[in-house]
Amino acid sequence: MKENFAIGDRLRMVMELRGMGVSELASKADLSQPYISFIVHNKRQPTIKTLEKIAEVLRVPVSIFFDGVTEPTLDIYNHFPQEIQEFLAKERSIDYIAVAKKANDNGISPEDIRTIISSSEKQKAK
Q1: CB neighbours of 31 closer than 8 A, spacing ≥ 6?
Q2: Is the distance from CB of 106 to CB of 47 less than 8 angstroms?
Q3: CATH code for position 7
Q4: Number of other CB atoms surrounding residue 5 within 10 Å
Q5: Helix axes 48-58, 33-40, angle to 10 degrees
């Protein structure tokens, strides 16, 4: 099921995927902890300039905060096997999740991806 998300909900989701807390984000974005907390809890609407700072720290496009409807990325993440979750947490990257979602949206199965990776590894070994 698809849902609409407020900016704070989207920010919280990306922070969780990046393994970043309010204090770390606030420090890196040069913003106050209470202000970030207010945004996360949908009590304040940040300016575009603030969102640009936050997006830069989180390494995501600003548009992630504005897409009208989205699949809850964290729900997708939570369905991954533990070893994949650990890899993603270590990498602090939602890029892998975005690729997996795009593959799923285009009917590319995990087995297809394994086949592509296997072929690529064989080519590199030559």
Answers
A1: 25, 50, 53, 54
A2: no
A3: 1.10.260.40
A4: 20
A5: 100
Q: How many independent structural domains does the chain possess?
A: 1
Among the residues of 1-109, which ranges form H helices? 7-18, 22-29, 33-40, 48-58, 73-78, 82-91, 95-105
Does this model's pTM top 0.70? no
d(CA 122, CA 126): 7
Dihedral angle sign, alpha carbons of residues 34, 40, 46, 49: positive
Task: Let me know if 73 is exposed, middle or buried by CB neighbors in 10 A (0-12, 13-18, 19+).
Answer: buried
Please give the chain's pLDDT, 126 residues, in tens.
Answer: 344 468 898 898 888 878 899 999 999 999 999 999 999 999 999 999 999 999 999 888 888 887 654 455 555 666 667 777 777 666 655 566 667 767 777 787 777 777 877 787 787 787
